[in-house]
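Issue 218. Parser rejects a valid record. Input:
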Amino acid sequence: MKTTPNKLLENSKKIWFICLLMAQGCFITYLIFGYALTGITTGLSGWSRLNNTAYVASDPTGNLMYATHVLLAVVMIIGGSLQLIPALRAKYPTFHRYNGRVFVLLACTISIAGMYLMIVRGTVGNLLMHSLTMFGGGMVILSSILAVLAARKRNINSHKIWAIRLYLAANGVLFFRLMIFAWFLTFGSLGVDTATFTGPTVLAVSICSYVMPLLIAELVRYMRAKHLIR
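Output the parser choked on:
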């Protein structure tokens, strides 16, 4: 049986989504056991075993921001993926609307908390990498605003475009972890200064984790607009 471009695209999208759900499941498990369970059993100070900037005894505001940034991500990841399931959107439009509002609120809150922590506490990497991370947070906020405005104007096509961009930007950290993990598995620490977590590989992955998913989504949209696929 001949495989049409439309069928190939649909199958590719399903495989991509399934793989992403599996990766998100692993990430959520890490967040729950690494941070939520550790916080309950040993206190927030136990987070320092996972990230040496996660807990600072003299900075309760920063600790709250870090907790917000990490733990709300669990709800955001699950809710965001539910928004992409066509059957749910069609059968439960009210759930889709309210879940979308929660997703937007959480995505923006997590991004603001992350940017605050980067400015106040700093993290590994250099200034360029920090700027790229701030750019990713800014894209989450911008995409959220434009997706909401389009929905209020009942411009469904524009809303879908910006909602997809928001979803991809909000998952930028996950994409980064997947790409850098795959690199370490394949090439080891080639191009990475493990002491400072800098180097050409880290920079390239930082860019690709935000740009590549967006480019793929835009390519699919362009092909549909040109009627190359339905």
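Fixed in the parser; the record now loads. The CA atoms of residues 192 and 202 lie 6 Å apart.
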